[in-house]
Amino acid sequence: MSFARHGRWLAPRSGRAFALALLGSSSIASAQATSWLYVGGGAGVVDQGEKDTHSALQLDTGIGTSAKHPVVVGGLFRVQGYLGAGADLGLAARLATRGFALGGFGAGIDAGVYQRWWGTESTGFTGNLVLGAPWGVTLLGGASVGSGDQRIYFASLGIDLARLTVHRHTGLEWFANPMRSPGE
User: Fold this and answer.
1) Chain-wide mean pLDDT for the chain?
2) Three-state SS string across the chain, please?
3) Domain limits for position 88
């Protein structure tokens, strides 16, 4: 066989070897997704023909894009319980500011769907405005509109445990973040 023939077979093999080497090499991952774990309490007005006020307990958990950008986009799973009535389950998309995601001052908007199996069952839209302050303090207010002409208006004050610990970049001189690595 001549050298030209070997060269023709050598080039594709070396290209494949190079591609496999690139794919097989490892590097430090730096995705650093944002997450939320909110627990709060407040009140809700349930309007199913007549208005009933209930104490409310809310739990949100979700994940979003990196806070390296000014806007963070993510998703939430929500359980919103009304004491003495029942709980709504929901899925929502969240659009939040970098400040909110990093545990400081900021805001977010949630929009999604909910399902209710108590009282008069209902499925519908839910949306809310989320205001964040340092240390994971979060104020949330919103409304749900569903089938059967049902409406709920709610407000909740609580703490976002992920924004308090994992993602917090504020107040470190007063209270060190136990979850951050020393290299951050």
Assistant:
1) 82
2) CCHHHHHHHHHHHHHHHHHHHHHHCCCCCCCCEEEEEEEEEEEEEEECCCEEEEEEEEEEEEEEEECCCCEEEEEEEEEEEECCCEEEEEEEEEEEEHHHHCCCCEEEEEEEEEEECCCCCEEEEEEEEEEECHHHEEEEEEEEEECCCEEEEEEEEEEEHHHHCCCCCCCCCCCCCCCCCCCC
3) 33-164
